[in-house]
Amino acid sequence: xxxxxxVEPDNAPEQSRELMEQGEQAAGQMLNYxxxxxxxxxxxxxxxxxxxxxxxxxSARRPTSPSTSRPRITTAAPTDCRSTPPWRSKQx
Length: 92
Description:
Layout: H1 14-27, H2 32-37, H3 41-54, H4 66-73
């Protein structure tokens, strides 16, 4: 059970409906994430602007799919903490 209950576009706050439509057009489908973000129009708008900025959008209102930004914000793969760092010799 999700912590934030998804909202259908018909039941969403007026401010969120346009953002939901933009998100659906960008992603090709209505994602549950958009339905959950619609609960808070201010947060949803900020998220869409942030995604637009990550994508280098000329306008911060450009909708994007959340999956398109993942490669840009992915960090290095985790390493085995038990291994010896390369700057230390194994004899220390």
